[in-house]
HK97 family phage prohead protease
Amino acid sequence: MAKPEYFVFNDENVKNSYGFYINTLGIRMDRFNDNPVMLNNHINSNENVIGNWSEALKENGLLKLKPHFDEETSLGKDVAGKVDRGYLKGCSMGIIPNWDSVERVGDRLVMMECELAEGSIIPVPSNKGAIAIYSVDGELMKEEDVKSLCLSVTDKLNEIPENLNTKLDMKKIILSVATLMALGFKDQPIDGHDTVDVEAKVLGLSNQVQTLTTENESLKLSAKAAKEAQELATKSRIETKVDLAISKGQIKADQKEEMTNLGITSEKALDTVLGSIPEKKNFSAGVITPSGTGAVEVNSMEEFQKLSFDAQLAFKTDSPEEYKKIVG
């Protein structure tokens, strides 16, 4: 038979040999992790160190650890062999208890917090939940002393007023004034607020934050769409002004992008610039040569300048109004 991969140190649903249960999540392991020693039957001596433990797992109310036997020593090798062959199956944890953390949960006495000191291979556990109790200075306590402490704790819990017994399984929490105001509590009971009530308030605030976040994102999208629409309308208006200026001869076609960018930056600046540039004269507009007179038809100053000197004089004499129009 091969060694088990893990030994169960604690099952929070099993009453230990002293009559109480131990909350698995409340087992602190900082001290143990620095020296995860495996002892032989809780005998705290160098020669009874038979290995160590690793890879602690807390799941489904169980605390489990993986054993590593020191088979370089005769005792370690002997115990490992007995485990391999199925003669030793028991494991027991040694703890430093926090007696102030003991609570009555329903019909159970539960130690909510303790500190793991060591884990031992034992031959005959008193039951599945066998444990050893150490004092704060690391000394193994006698069984009668532990039982006396357990009775003292039980008596103390029995003194709790009857009207509180119905909620002993409900933890309390003392809140700061700022937290009370933020969560909407009107006052603070002497023993604090039930954690269930606090969690409900926190959940409510969380839902409100989520709703406001969603609304804020929606407003951001709407504002972005409105801004883009406004920018598009502005650009369209500026381009219309620039195109009109080009058609009037105020600016050249290759200046369109430059003037459009100026208008987008400052429409007032664009208006000022365009207002300072005169429109180009169209010399051909309105030039009419009287039909049938035989006069030369001239539609622009360029055409006029191509005429001979005599023809220019004749045009001035015969068509004085048309001459004024092309001269400007």
Summary: The mean pLDDT is 81. The first helix runs from residue 30 to 34. Residues 281-328 form one domain.
